[in-house]
Design brief:
The complex is a heterodimer of chains A (115) and B (114). With 115 residues, chain A is an all-beta fold. Chain A is built from no helices and twelve strands. Chain A is globular and about 45 Å long. Chain B is mostly beta strands and 114 residues long. The chains are: A mainly beta (115), B mainly beta (114).
Chain lengths: 115, 114
Amino acid sequence: AQTVTQSQPEMSVQEAETVTLSCTYDTSESDYYLFWYKQPPSRQMILVIRQEAYKQQNATENRFSVNFQKAAKSFSLKISDSQLGDAAMYFCAYRSANRDDKIIFGKGTRLHILP
Amino acid sequence: KAGVTQTPRYLIKTRGQQVTLSCSPISGHRSVSWYQQTPGQGLQFLFEYFSETQRNKGNFPGRFSGRQFSNSRSEMNVSTLELGDSALYLCASSLLGGQGTEAFFGQGTRLTVV
């Protein structure tokens, strides 16, 4: 069974600084997708960034980028120029590339932005 | 384009009662999944429906059930409520489901069982 592990329950970063959230996963599949979701106090899960396992190039979305290390089964999220609006719970997630629609989430990392 | 709509937003029920939660997916989306979120267990998959058929089910007791209608709207039912069922229930819709298609989440229904 696939698992997703986020080892940092909480993190803090100064506004405008850069922070990296860690995520490791375990799977025997070769084809899958990885995601980072953000859940602000409003509770709505918002997709931050997505990575296809078959792509070697790391995904980037504006201030958000990932470091995808397939062999190490590592998928970290880097947030550059942190803003107060980035404060939220961040979830790393895995989804198989087959018809199974289940998303497997990590326990989350609560990110605090210090003004 | 309207997002995923979940109703109600908040619900308080008594132990032993049953509850029905509703989820309206994004127009055109045929896959609807349900997740339970608790502080202790995190986000756990309940089930997924696609074209009115349950395609996948998580490890939850039979008290948890769901269905999907022809317009893709989905309902989730929990019977004989227990205190441990108190959680945020999230619904996610995607165009086809699977194969990494993006899942869009609703704001959830906060269920409190007293």
